[in-house]
């Protein structure tokens, strides 16, 4: 008994260590790290090293706990500002988007496989949601800087759409097992009641539970090392309790993490670091477990139709669902296309594919194998190309430089101060010898491994790491002091060749650089043109084509309006014009054009014929003679 337990611990630990070390391969070759974890599990399984693992109920148990930890950490890392930017489109993607995707993939599965409609729709719901772990990793760790609204929409969607897919999958498995006995109408009514209960209880208990957890973590002085453990333990209590009363535990822990992460609690930095470590461990455990559960020798029987179904998902179902959901929100064609492409499937889909096996669905094993292949194709094709697609669509914006680390400092009473650490950049205002305000004097300077007082450190040098105690309201001012200026933060492809006033008139600009400016906009300022073109959704790095030049937003002010503009004399190359994903303004303009054309045709048809002139009649008569 002791030897078997030791062997299990040894094998499990070696798999975790192997998965972590293989992440070096991911960093070097750009492979999605979660794909690497999954492949390690496959290689260690019965068709690889021979480790036999077929406990589907145990795998679902492990995966559910791991997913609860990941969703709590996802909510904990999501800021209210992010939620505010992306709440509408994300919730629509997490509900209607999941339903549309599930329906279209179910239709594709019904055509590609000889399955019943129920089994086909079940497969559609299993692969309908994006994977929070994969999306969060690729966006936050992948080194891609995107516009805030695009990034926020993807993050909030990936964290909130899992409960919908989980509910639909469990409900359809229940209908498959009991629907025939209770009648189709009763099964559908039960499904609707369960949907309301799951979402209602899950959301309400999650918000209330988050408030309770945050208040406990804020009021009770735990040992610093125990604080993160208590917070996570309460989150798992909430997860289990919500499931027991019929709500969605996954939705509850995500909402609780959202509340806790946006509340000032004790030892918040330690809690955040612990959550990240536990989230990584949960991802590794889930992917390794699900990899061990699969048998690659079973894949050839479903490989070709499964790859075809993955293409249906990536190229038809997900893009159509995203376009329909984002249509009311004015996303551009390129933004819609990118959000459609970043629809990575991951461990959640494989976890849900276990449910039909546990529920005794006849096609359960085939559904599991097809879902596994779809996840592999998604991680390989989409996960490996996200950066290239973002650059191809022109959605990469300059990264924000300056801030290195922000550490919260707890003071008695109502103090609201923080300790922030910055690394000095030679091109920043501080690095060029600019004066540091008295309120921003560093408390400590780290240089070449030595700790120095600011008074004895002399002029700050390139690479110095400085620690400053300051009021939270002053953080934005410090960011500007220690950040690289726009004109040196990148080449002309990002910020333009030189800057110009946002209040410059377009007519003067066109006269100075020799290109035509439409008469209607000659009197407008550069800021006005950018604001109208972007429909008020302005971020640093946005570009507006203007004849042979590009106007580039270098900096926005606190009201998210244009504060500084760059001018690129040579265009960075024509952006691709996608024939799909028209937004509501483009559709409205097309409809107006169509109506105007129909009206012109009707007016032409209703107009009386033009009478012929006498000289024309004479000519005709003469010609006839």
UniProtKB/TrEMBL annotation:
Stored InterPro entries: Cation/H_exchanger_TM (IPR006153), Na+/solute_symporter_sf (IPR038770), RCK_C (IPR006037)
Compartments (UniProt record): Cell membrane
Disordered, as annotated region: 598-625
Principal place of residence: membrane
Species of origin: Prosthecomicrobium pneumaticum
UniProt KW keywords: Antiport, Cell membrane, Ion transport, Membrane, Potassium, Potassium transport, Transmembrane, Transmembrane helix, Transport
UniProt cross-references to Pfam families, sorted A to Z: Na_H_Exchanger
A Gene Ontology BP annotation from the UniProt entry: proton transmembrane transport
Signal peptide from the UniProt entry: none
Protein name in the entry: Cell volume regulation protein A
Stretches assigned to the RCK C-terminal domain: 404-484
Higher taxonomy: Bacteria, Pseudomonadati, Pseudomonadota, Alphaproteobacteria, Hyphomicrobiales
Membrane topology: Multi-pass membrane protein
Membrane-spanning intervals of the chain: 53-72, 92-113, 120-144, 164-183, 195-217, 229-256, 277-296, 302-326, 338-360, 366-386
One GO MF term: antiporter activity
Annotated GO CC locations: plasma membrane
């Amino acid at each position: 008994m002791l030897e078997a337990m030791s062997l299990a611990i040894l094998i499990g630990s070696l798999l975790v260590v192997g998965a972590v070390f293989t992440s070096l391969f991911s960093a070097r070759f750009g492979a999605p790290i979660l794909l690497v974890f999954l492949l390690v599990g496959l290689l260690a399984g019965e068709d690889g090293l021979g480790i036999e693992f077929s406990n589907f109920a145990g795998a679902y148990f492990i995966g559910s706990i791991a997913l609860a930890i990941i969703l709590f950490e996802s909510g904990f890392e999501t800021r209210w500002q992010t939620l505010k930017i992306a709440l509408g489109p994300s919730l629509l993607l997490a509900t209607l988007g999941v339903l549309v995707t599930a329906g279209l993939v179910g239709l594709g599965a019904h055509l590609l496989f000889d399955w019943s409609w129920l089994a086909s729709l079940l497969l559609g719901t299993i692969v309908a949601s994006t994977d929070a772990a994969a999306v969060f990793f690729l966006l936050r760790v992948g080194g891609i800087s995107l516009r805030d609204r695009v990034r926020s929409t993807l993050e909030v969607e990936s964290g909130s759409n899992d409960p919908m897919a989980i509910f639909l999958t469990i409900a359809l498995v229940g209908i498959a097992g009991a629907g025939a006995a209770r009648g189709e109408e009763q099964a559908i009514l039960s499904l609707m009641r369960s949907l309301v209960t799951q979402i209602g209880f899950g959301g309400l208990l999650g918000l209330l539970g988050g408030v309770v957890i945050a208040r406990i973590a804020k009021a009770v002085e735990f040992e610093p090392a125990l604080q993160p453990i208590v917070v996570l333990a309460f989150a798992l209590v909430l997860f289990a309790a919500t499931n027991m009363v019929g709500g969605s535990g996954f939705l509850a822990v995500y909402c609780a993490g959202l509340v806790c992460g946006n509340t000032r609690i004790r030892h918040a930095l330690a809690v955040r670091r612990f959550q990240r470590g536990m989230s990584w461990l949960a991802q590794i455990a889930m992917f390794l477990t699900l990899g061990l559960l699969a048998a690659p020798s079973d894949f050839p029987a479903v490989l070709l139709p499964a790859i075809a179904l993955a293409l249906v998902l990536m190229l038809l179902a997900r893009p159509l669902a995203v376009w329909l959901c984002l249509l009311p929100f004015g996303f551009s064609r390129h933004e819609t296309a990118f959000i459609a492409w970043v629809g990575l499937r991951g461990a959640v889909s494989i976890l849900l594919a276990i449910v039909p096996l546990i529920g005794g669905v006849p096609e359960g094993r085939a559904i599991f194998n097809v879902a596994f292949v779809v996840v592999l194709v998604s991680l390989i094709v989409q996960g490996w190309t996200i950066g290239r697609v973002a650059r191809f669509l022109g959605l990469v914006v300059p990264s924000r430089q300056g801030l290195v680390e922000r550490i919260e400092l707890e003071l008695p009473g109502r103090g609201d101060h923080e300790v922030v650490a910055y690394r000095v950049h030679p091109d920043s205002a501080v690095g060029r010898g600019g004066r540091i305000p008295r309120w921003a004097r560093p408390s400590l300077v780290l240089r070449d491994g030595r700790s120095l007082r600011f008074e004895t450190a002399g002029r700050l040098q390139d690479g110095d790491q400085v620690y400053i105690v300051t009021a939270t309201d002053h953080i934005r001012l410090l960011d500007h002091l220690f950040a690289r200026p726009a004109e040196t933060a990148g080449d002309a492809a990002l910020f333009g060749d030189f800057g110009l006033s946002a209040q410059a008139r377009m007519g003067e600009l066109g006269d100075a650089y020799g290109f035509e400016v439409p008469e209607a906009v000659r009197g407008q300022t550069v800021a006005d043109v950018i604001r109208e073109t972007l429909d008020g959704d302005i971020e640093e790095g946005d570009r507006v084509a203007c004849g042979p030049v590009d106007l580039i937003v270098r900096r926005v002010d606190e009201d998210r309006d244009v504060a500084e503009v760059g001018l690129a004399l040579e265009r960075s190359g024509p952006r691709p014009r996608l024939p799909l994903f028209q937004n509501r303004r483009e559709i409205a303009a097309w409809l107006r054009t169509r109506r105007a054309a129909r009206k012109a045709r009707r007016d032409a048809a209703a107009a009386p014929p033009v009478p012929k002139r006498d000289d024309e009649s004479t000519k005709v008569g003469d010609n006839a003679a």
